[in-house]
Design a protein that fits this description.
Distance between the termini: 41 Å
Largest sheet: none
Helix content: over 70%
Radius of gyration: 25 Å
Length: 626
Amino acid sequence: MPSMSVVRTEFQRCLRGKTPWLLALCLLLVSRVPTSPEQAVVRHLGDAAAFPRAQTAVAIVVPFAAAALGFRSVVGERESGTARVLLGTELSRTDLVVGKALGRGAAIMVPVLVTTPLLVAYGTYTYESISLPVLAGLLVAAAAYAFAWTTVTVSLSAAMSSTTRAAGVVFAVTLLLGIFWSDITVALLWNLVTGSTPSNEMAHPELFSALKWFSLPSAYYVLTDWLLGVPVGPGSAALQVSDALRNNGTLATASPPLPVWVGVPIFLAWPALALLVGVSAIRYGDLTPRGGPGRLRRTWANRPSLPRVAVTPATAVVGRGGWVDSLPGRWQPLARREFRRLTHGSGVWLLGATVLVAGVLSLSPSTLVRDALGARVPLAALQSPISVIGGFGTLLLTFRTVVTERDSGSIRMTAGTAVSRSATLVGVIIGRASAIAFSLVLVVLGTCLVAIPQHGVAPPHVLVGFLAVTVAFVYCMTGFGVALSTVVRRQMVAGVAVLVLAGLYLTWFQISNIVYGALTGTAVNGFSPPASPTYLLLRWAPPASLYHVVTNALLGVPNSAGNAAGVLTDALQSNVFSNIVVVRAAYGADVPVWYLHPAVALGELLCWFALPVALALISYRRRALD
């Protein structure tokens, strides 16, 4: 049994913090995000009509809350040295991991169990129906779901060697294996294994449907859908009923690809396997983070030495005494330091490799997309990987930049030089952005090179423009991440902020509908958008959406914030259910007002860089360094 003192300490520490209660607030807010179900769906749900909003809110919010509370739980103790103190007592390494998982899981369970009945009560007031046994079962499932996700994140924290790696891995698991499993990850895996894109004519549709069940949120949905008495599947109860009615006109759907009871071992397998990995890593690993160089670092250190070239074109531009040194300011040495620091590490290359794999797997689009884009297909394939994986990967590589140096005290050494604070921050941003942009530029060129036999050579002018916009997007996200690291005081707060931003972006489709309804007093459905420029402006607000708008203009795709493939295959096709809004389809013209022009979108994207960096400069110059 784990030490109850660890469980009790972690439980009390977390409840005294803000994250569990922010979780309760997020549950309340996210429950209002989905649009109200149709009357036919409500009628078929019956007594279960009061539960789908609470079911969906728990499924979406709990993974992010567990990631925020768990990603530093063990690796933070190792970095601060307190892990050695704790393990100097009778506490074992296994007790430490299990105790933290139970304590933090209980801390997340409290706001979930407090908020879920409130959400169900509101649903009961709206639909005038409730089942108390179903409510009890839903509470049990929600509590188990909270413990399962917390166990996963704490175990991953125990297996990581630094906070940055823990944040990146936990963030990737939360998105790819949690939120995006049914919609994106399974399709990418199917493409990788079979070499074909999932479609209506694929060879084994039952297997493809079964794979969607093998994630923790999908298993949670399956079990709670069975509890609510609706067609089971990896989606909310309202969605399952809506799909069944739209496809068959009745709830008498075909048999599910797997028995319902399979959801139980899937639900238990995630935390069990994660705990096995985490406990094994901390039992047989060094308690000191980065106790030895990793395999990649050792391989790089043992690489064959090559003769050094005294002067290269790159040296003449960015080297000491090069063209960059002639620019005003004293930020150049710090920029070089940050560039070397990132390019000598594995983070930027892992990010680039992930984007490259996602781009290569998307090189086999439908015939419609191939005919419309031709040699521009590889650039279109990279839109979503760069905007989503590259954007949030950049935030993960920058959100600890300044706050870590403040915690370690090394920021005072930098401040003791002749470089001003403003030049320090500018150098950090330019150096880190240049390193990340360098890896993504190589990814774009590599993807285009791989695609030559299949799609031909990308048009040079389109390729150059795409690279320029990609570099601008990277600088925007780097500036935002470093600004966040400058304004906040604690690494935990910065990490939570990144996870909140990820959640906002993932639900921006619904949030933009709510904001537009609050501004205009008119409720909207994004699948039937209003012909209002203000609505489109809201839909395009995130940097990733603006990146799509600008790159779509370069690719010759109609003006839209959706990716090029989605615009061509969904938004512009008749009788296709899509939430992608195209200006031409909504107004009959490419640009109804000047502020929806792609050139203006580029200016808005640059504002996402300028405004946060300006705020960070003001804060950095006026605040104390401690």
